[in-house]
Amino acid sequence: MKKFSIIIGLACIVMLSFSCNKTLQNLFTGFDVKVPDMQVTIPAIPIVTANEILLGSFSLNFNLDSTIRANTNNVFNINSVTSLKISNLLVTISNGTSLNNLSNFESGRLLISSNSNTTEATLVNFMFPTIDTYSYVADTNNAPEILSYYRGTQINYKLFGKLRKPTTSALNLTLSITIRVK
To answer: CA-CA distance, 112 to 124, in Å (whole number)?
Structure first.
């Protein structure tokens, strides 16, 4: 009988432990995290080709685990996260003119890789308008799951673009990214 009581007691402890962890997970509602801005100077591109070209590569050290702990008073960590997606991407040209701005580009594409997932994935594709455009918010509704990339601390991005018309001067481009941690 004593063995039976011990087994029942241990089973209750295990069930309570799982239940507490599940409750704690349900309390984690998530939050938005602003990734450090990435800046690149795109040189003048006088020739329009049929293919997209690499506009810039960016690498940054980013510890999502520390960010989660700091935003939740050390209650949650990266193991509490079930989803991570880009929620906002803003592309800005700071020195654009009527002859040189985002409308010179037909499309863009941003790739991600990291030291925890080296397989490159497309974060977002975007089509720029044909009218003079100096800032553009990309549609992130179909953004892929990127948690496996942010489990690492070295995050790598590559920005590609396809020209619509040549540029005659260098463009200072900034990518501002916000990710949704759930």
So the answer is: 10
- Give the Cα separation of 68 and 46 in Å (integer): 45
Secondary-structure breakdown of the chain: helix, strand, coil percentages, each rounded to the nearest 5: 25, 40, 35
Quick one: which H or E segment has residue 32? strand 31-42
CA distance 118 to 113: 5
Mean pLDDT of 82-95: 97
Whole-prediction pTM: 0.83
Confidence category of residue 29, pLDDT binned at 50, 70, 90: confident
- Give the pair of three-digit tokens for residue 91: 């592309």
Q: Looking at the chain, list the stretches that DSSP marks H as alpha helix, in order from N- to C-terminal side.
A: 2-27, 64-71, 147-150
Q: Which of 129, 134, 34 has the alpha carbon at shortest distance from 91?
A: 134
